Amino acid sequence: MSIFLNENSKVIVQGLTGSEGTKHATKMLAAGTNIVGGVNARKAGTTVSIGGKELTVFGTVEEAMKETGADVSVIFVPPKFAKDAVIEAIDAAIPLAVVITEGIPVHDSAYFWAHAVAKGNKTRIIGPNCPGIISPGKSNAGIIPADIAGPGKIGLVSKSGTLTYQMMFELKEFGFSTAIGIGGDPIIGTTHIDALEAFEADPETAAIVMIGEIGGDAEERAAAYIKENVTKPVVGYVAGFTAPEGKTMGHAGAIVSGSAGTAAAKKEALEAAGVKVGKTPSETAALMKEIVASL
After folding, report:
1. CATH of the domain at 17
2. Residue 196 sits in a domain of what CATH number?
3. H helices present in the chain, as ranges
4. pLDDT of 1-23, one tens digit each?
5. Is residue 192 annotated as a catalytic residue, yes or no?
6. How far from the centroid of its chain's Cα atoms is residue 223's Cα?
């Protein structure tokens, strides 16, 4: 099993004909993703050959869905056009929109998030500024390298793209049901809690790795959720133990104010909820290896 994405997912790429869209669509196809078309209003009606597959470029997401049955869109659109691209996906009610684009203004993210809510939350947004989601051996929607790890029983949710890749590599001998990079911006569509809820409900996910980072209170809220709702073992890592106070680190959401949002505070909240927390990614992986070995 997997969450949000499986071997039956039909994927379109908004921005397919751009350099990033073409590059990563090629890699997604090689990973077995069923890409069924692209969207670019300026090139509607044309076809492009990517990874040995002829793909039709549609004028709108709605048209692409009608013609192909697509249920996932991966968005590789420059920041200034990203808001309109996501709104178009929401208006078409595509079930999953994976927003890879980095540098989208927070106001734009707030706007399309609110638009999704107003439309009844028919579209799950992953991102923005994220590596996407992969169900190894089934489908890959985004930029996560597909050859790091194969299928298995570990679920992974992470704010950081790079740490997603590292954790997959460290635990490659066990494999993953799904790995999801939710992004580190202040406003994101899918949260740690959303992923934890899905992994808890997935019968094939036996244990969960949760990677957070300094800033905000998402990890504290996830800890409270785990305590009340998650029965599966969870291990965690919080990036930023050595970060100076008041400085934005890497992600736009990673800023610490006083004692709120520090790695130590997040670690304490998670441990109070029964989550084993590593001080480094490798230590976190070692904790998970112990758990998987005992299952």
Report:
1. 3.40.50.720
2. 3.40.50.261
3. 19-30, 61-68, 79-91, 106-118, 161-170, 192-201, 218-229, 263-272, 281-294
4. 689 999 999 999 999 999 999 99
5. no
6. 19
